[in-house]
Write a structure and sequence with these properties.
The complex is a heterotrimer of chains A (266), B (265) and C (316). Chain A has 266 residues and is an all-alpha fold. Chain A has twelve helices and no strands. Chain A has one domain. Chain B has one domain. Chain C has 316 residues and is α/β, with parallel strands linked by helices. Chain C starts with 9 loop residues before the first strand and ends in a 7-residue tail after the last helix. In chain C, 44% of the residues are buried. The chains are: A mainly alpha (266), B mainly alpha (265), C alpha/beta (316).
């Protein structure tokens, strides 16, 4: 790549930063799209709290103050997932406007561009997590690990959003189709439901239990949940941060490999 | 309405609904999600919340029994609202002008959509119930229970259809679709959707108690739960749902009928 | 009595339609006689489509009155609908349906008896030359085929009055000719036609009478030829050998004032119209001027349009 050599690393960094600023601005500029991804998860949290409060006495349920406290972790992950719909739609638009072609032709490092493009979603994901914690805490969703734990949750929310964004980008680059991006989105919701996000694994049985046991989202949510219900622990932080981080790295690698293959095919 | 004009209405309505049903075969990508959604709801809810059946006072020990009717009512609501989506599309492409320009009775436009939504809801039952039975659903209330489920399903479709068409006629663009989905979602969930009324606590109990959807869900589930009368469909648990269906259907269909006239204003 | 049939198939009296503050149709008075092809000519947004939507019962007039096929559109829309055929601008056709299916649906909506639906559909498909494509989905049709299908749909109940809203907008010249031919044929068979168009040529070629619509009002109405004659005299262009130009100019001056022309030709606005041409030729001959070329240019509908509205419809 002779073109790349012509640019200094400093310039590349500035370009990535500019992309990140642009994508952040774009995300927050659309209140009509953003509002549902804050309101809906809160609605479901309130609904669940009222519906399932008696369920907390069931065998297999951890010791909790309320069902709301139990479900805070799920609200964060579910909310970030909801919020990523906007990002996925933006990505679909980008595909139609030829963003991928620009990516192929860009002199800046491609990883940087991808991450810069997703920065807006990541910041929004972290903001969502912060809002959910702040709103639900006074209603009985006490975070036992205190402010440091809450900070980890916010960080985790950001990384989850980044992971979803890079997964969507991988799909986008592989298929080059906006429809495929939109269409693969419900699969993430299916994945979320077939995990221990909404109810403890200990209460499940049969095939459903087996799927939840194998589903990495179970461990992500359980890590977050431990921060809420019990307190600060190394394993909990590891689960909350490492799982989405690994998913993110894998997705970025997948995306770059598809990109290289596309370039070779030209 | 005279006999001749009734015949004319039904004939036109049938032709309009046939056009709509062709869409199931010719554009399956639009229909499949509507079919998969209730199946997913049933499986995911029944699996995730399986343990709630162990709560004292829960009316069945099979969580699929509890959540299959919810999935079906959900799907039926969307087969009604789906006609609202189609109406928006047809208004925007001008196909509705073709219908409105014709001398066919105005009622046939709404009746045609109603027949289509019923057919879609029936198709849904035909697929979801066997899947449910495979997953362990048992009609403990006997065959009559299938009928109450069907009544709730078609009733929900009718209510949703009137609401969906009325909104489509008023807004004439995708804003209507957003309002339809949002309201349907809220009405369905602020009920005994997830838990029996007796086991719900707090604000939701107060809301669900007056939400007619709770009555309709009770009707839908009557053949699948152990009711007070010992496993049989009991009139005490069904009439409330039937009344809710008739009253709300009349209300939303009137809304649709009045709004149809607005298209020419 | 509004239910009482009157002679003319389309009558509008002070027809008005407002959308909020916008007066889309601002008091239209018109009469279309039986057997006429009547053209609404005007640019996009002039109010043509809104007027047609009122005349075809799709839109209620804000004020004023319209009698179509003998019935008031506001009070007896069903009677009007039974008697008119309409092909709308966007050819509202479901791409998932086949031509045949659409025709059969249309037949049911217009109350064609079950026994006749099939034969009527086949007959109309034949008429517009779509028999071979009858069982193909409309989504695969070309623009011209769609318009022809739309025309067939509007004829299902053999209407006496036909409304065509921009029937050839976006069509290639060949398809346009085919459609014109079909409209003429229908008209010969006795159908009264009201069409809207933004094409001068279409109005000129097809319509017996036209109404020029601008900002919701009819600003000119009449036969295209008369309208053009009203705008002004035709221009006569002659080419003569260079050495005889002065002599020729002197002769032409007797017939009207000279008009600017391209280099090498002389132009004159004929004061007495085209019939003066024979006199011009005779006088030039008498003056010994040898004619190399002669051409007469009538004012175009665009000139009529420009004169009536202050702006041109085509080009600029």
């Amino acid at each position: 790549m002779t073109v790349a050599a012509a640019h200094s690393p400093g310039l590349a960094l500035r370009q990535v930063a500019a992309l990140a600023r642009r994508s952040t601005r774009e995300t927050f500029r659309q209140p009509a799209l953003v509002a549902p991804s804050v309101i809906f998860p809160l609605f479901f949290a309130a609904l669940g709290a009222s519906s399932f409060n008696r369920a907390t006495s069931l065998p297999g349920f951890p010791k909790v103050d309320s069902f709301l406290q139990f479900s805070l972790a799920a609200t964060v992950v579910q909310g970030v997932l909801f919020g990523s719909v906007t990002g996925a739609a933006a990505l679909a638009t980008d595909i139609e406007n030829g963003f991928l072609d620009r990516l192929l032709a860009a002199p800046t490092p491609r990883t940087g561009i991808l991450i810069g493009r997703l920065a807006g979603s990541a910041i929004f994901g972290a903001a969502q997590a912060a809002v959910f914690i702040a709103v639900l805490w006074p209603f009985g969703a006490t975070v036992r690990s205190g402010v440091p734990g809450a900070a980890v949750m916010v960080l985790s929310g950001g990384i989850v959003a980044l992971a979803i964004g890079s997964l969507m980008s991988a799909v986008a680059i592989r298929t080059g189709s906006a429809e495929a991006v939109q269409g693969s989105f419900p699969l993430l919701f299916v994945l979320l439901f077939f995990s221990s996000a909404f109810f403890p694994r200990e209460t499940m049985s049969g095939a459903y239990r087996a799927i939840a046991d194998a589903n990495p989202i179970s461990y992500l949510v359980e890590g977050l949940r431990e921060l809420v219900l019990t307190g600060y622990s190394g394993t909990a932080v590891l689960q909350a941060i490492l799982i989405p981080l690994v998913a993110c790295a894998a997705a970025v690698m997948l995306a770059l490999r598809s990109l290289r293959r596309k370039l070779a095919a030209r | 309405m005279s006999g001749a004009s009734l015949r004319e209405t039904v004939r036109s309505a049938r032709a309009i609904s046939v056009r709509n049903l062709r869409g199931i075969v010719r554009l399956p990508s639009a229909f499949m999600p509507a079919l998969m959604m209730p199946i997913f709801t049933m499986i995911a809810f029944a699996g995730t919340f399986a343990a709630i059946t162990k709560l004292p006072g829960f009316p069945t020990d099979r969580s699929v029994n509890w959540f299959m009717p919810l999935g079906i009512c959900f799907g039926s609501a969307f087969s009604g609202i789906g006609q609202g989506f189609s109406a928006i599309r047809d208004i925007q492409t001008g196909f509705y002008d073709r219908l409105r320009m014709s001398p066919a009775p105005r009622a046939s436009i709404i009746l045609g959509a109603l027949l289509a939504s019923w057919f879609r809801a029936l198709l849904l039952n035909l697929v979801v119930v066997p899947v449910g039975v495979l997953l362990g659903v048992r009609f403990t209330g006997g065959l009559l229970g299938i009928l109450t489920l069907l009544a709730a399903s078609l009733g929900t479709a009718t209510m949703a259809l009137g609401w969906g068409l009325g909104l489509a006629y008023r807004f004439r663009d995708m804003r209507a679709a957003a309002v339809m989905q949002l309201t349907m979602f809220v009405v369905l969930y602020l009920s005994s959707a997830q838990m029996p009324l007796a086991l719900i606590s707090g604000w939701l109990h107060a809301v669900a108690r007056i939400n007619p959807m709770t009555n309709i869900l009770r009707l839908a589930r009557e053949g699948l739960v152990t009711s007070a009368s010992g496993g049989n469909v009991a009139w005490a648990n069904t009439w409330g749902g039937l009344v809710a269906i008739v009253a709300l259907s009349a209300l939303t269909l009137t809304f649709a009928w009045r709004s149809l006239d607005r298209l020419s204003r | 009595m509004s239910g009482h049939p009157v002679q003319a198939p389309i009558v509008a009296e002070q027809l008005v339609r407002t959308f909020g503050d916008l007066r889309a149709v601002d008091g239209i008075d018109m009469t279309v006689d039986a057997g006429e092809i009547f053209g609404f000519l005007g640019p996009n947004g002039a109010g043509k489509s809104t007027a047609v939507r009122m005349l075809t019962t799709l839109l209620r007039p804000t004020s004023g009155r319209a009698i179509v096929a003998g019935f008031d559109v506001a009070t007896h829309p069903d009677e009007v609908r039974r008697r008119i055929g309409v092909a709308l601008q966007d050819a509202a056709i479901d791409p998932l349906m086949t031509g045949n299916e659409l025709l059969r649906l249309q037949a049911v909506l217009y109350g064609i008896p079950s026994g006749k639906v099939k034969s009527r559909a086949a007959e109309l498909l034949e008429r517009v030359g779509l028999t071979a494509a009858a069982d193909r989905r409309v989504g695969t049709y070309s623009g011209g085929m769609r318009r022809r299908l739309d025309l067939a749909l509007s004829l299902i109940h053999e209407p006496t009055v036909l409304f065509l809203d921009e029937p050839t907008t976006g069509l290639d010249p060949m398809s346009r000719m085919t459609l014109w031919e079909e409209v003429r044929r229908l008209n010969r068979e006795g159908t009264t036609v009201l069409l809207t168009t933004q094409y001068l040529e279409e109005a000129d070629q097809l319509a017996d009478r036209i109404a020029i619509i601008d900002k919701g009002r009819i600003v000119r109405e009449g036969r295209p030829r008369d309208l053009k004659a009203e705008v002004g005299s035709p221009t006569l262009l002659v080419a003569v050998p260079r050495e005889q130009a002065d002599a020729a100019r002197a002769v032409l001056q007797e017939f009207g004032e000279s008009r600017p022309t391209a280099e090498g030709t002389l132009g004159v606005g004929l004061r007495d119209g085209a019939r003066a041409v024979t006199d011009v030729v005779r006088r030039l001959d008498e003056a010994g001027v040898r004619l190399q070329h002669l051409e007469i240019n009538e004012p175009s509908l665009d000139d009529v349009f420009a004169e009536a509205t202050g702006h041109r419809l085509e080009g600029e």
